[in-house]
Design goal:
The chain is α/β, with parallel strands linked by helices and about 425 residues long. It has 14 helices and 18 strands. The strands form 4 sheets. It has a 7-stranded mixed β-sheet, with helices on both faces. A 6-stranded mixed β-sheet has the order 7-2-1-11-18-17. Strands 8-9-10 form a 3-stranded antiparallel β-sheet, with no helix packed on it. The relative contact order is 0.16. It binds flavin-adenine dinucleotide. Its cofactor is FAD.
Length: about 425
Amino acid sequence: MPSNSARTVRIAIVGGGIGGLFCALSIHHHCSAAGVPLEVDVYEQASQYKEIGAGVGIGVNAARLLHKLNIGDRLNAIAGHRNGVWIRFSRFDNSEDICTLPVDDDQTVRQAPCARSDFLDLLREVVEERGAATLHTKKAFKHVEDQEDTVRLSFADGTTATADMLIGCDGIHSSVRDSFVVDKSVFSGQIAYRGVIPIASLQNWPFKTYSVAWLAKHRHLLVFPIARNTQLNIVAFVTKSASEAAGIKESWTSSCDRRDVLIDFDGFDEPARQVLSLLPDQPSKWKLNDREPLDRWHYMSGKVVLLGDAAHAMLPHLGAGAGQAIEDGWVLGRALSEHLSSATRSPYFTSLESTAQLYQTVRLPRAQKTQRTARAAGNTYEMQAEDMLDKSFEECIPMMAERTKERMKWVWEEDLDAAYERVRDLEASS
Ligand SMILES: Cc1cc2nc3c(=O)[nH]c(=O)nc-3n(C[C@H](O)[C@H](O)[C@H](O)COP(=O)(O)OP(=O)(O)OC[C@H]3O[C@@H](n4cnc5c(N)ncnc54)[C@H](O)[C@@H]3O)c2cc1C
């Protein structure tokens, strides 16, 4: 890859989801500031840049990075508001409080629970407004070839593209990852029913805040407000065996009859059942998978890098997967701009490979900790952790409350720029 030269650097991003579009914005932001001439192409397999259904909680760690890109106000304008409560955990059978965890969301930089479609639209609009990348559709990546200084990408439609660097942001079933790693997604033992309902359709709703999780053994129901508190995002988790989950996909194409959801949540208190009874006739039904942690995120001498779910797909129980993809994009953008502009002295910037290694060294431990903690959180919420298996619901309740109180602190409070600079400068001074 050309470094510190006038030649335009070509970057190919495969996958135009949250990770891919944020990465394009971050690279543009950092490289424009450093005066690096750049051409970024995003290759998305779908026919449009669109998310359907459901919500996504953007944690304050990720929201902070959107504010650094000067789109924080636009993020807040599409988000829901949790009114000072991150979440209230309730008993499934009578909605009594198990523990209520506060969040400081009166600040400008705050949690941003959004409709996924609004959030992706925001990222796409900003990419277009800033000319951060050329967005391609119907480009399903198939194959990458090492051509010494460049890589050649092949797509399912028979076309090819050449780039100095390929960033694989193509999700949990990443084809870019598959080109280098032999592994499979791992079934979590849970499925999730998902849907969104208008908050105005709820009658006699007893909670001041709408962020509530009702917990039972093997089942839990999570709801939170999105879209300026006009819509309620619903995710209903149930433990299932591999044979029960066979045939369910990890996508919006799997759905079920609403009656199946009500059967699975039999015995839940009235407010929870009201929410479920308002789901569409055919709510979406997801198989929840993640991946085992992967210890290498860059290949072909740094010309290929993995990002987001392609590098570290995790279970949704911390609401942190999208935020981790956003953190990846921020760090990769910073590292690339410093490598390409030679503005910063650090042995990491002598080659693209060591720059990719810097990105991995900063991001991998934190992303893998999030992956592991998300698994543990799911087991705790469903009271399936090793030491809860032989305990009753009543015995599990205090254990669950204790384990949950501090769980999100380290996810949200990270100073990512300081962490990046620490790693970068440590190497420089050693
Ligand atoms: C039930 C559930 C709830 C969740 N809730 C939250 C939450 O509240 N907060 C949170 O932070 N995270 C949440 N997550 C996780 C979050 O959705 C993911 O971590 C995040 O979307 C990852 O972004 P990504 O861009 O890496 O991958 P994706 O969002 O999967 O995007 C990948 C993109 O690549 C495209 N693509 C795939 N293959 C190819 C190919 N071969 N060629 C070209 N393009 C390709 C896809 O079409 C897609 O557009 C949740 C996940 C689930 C399942």
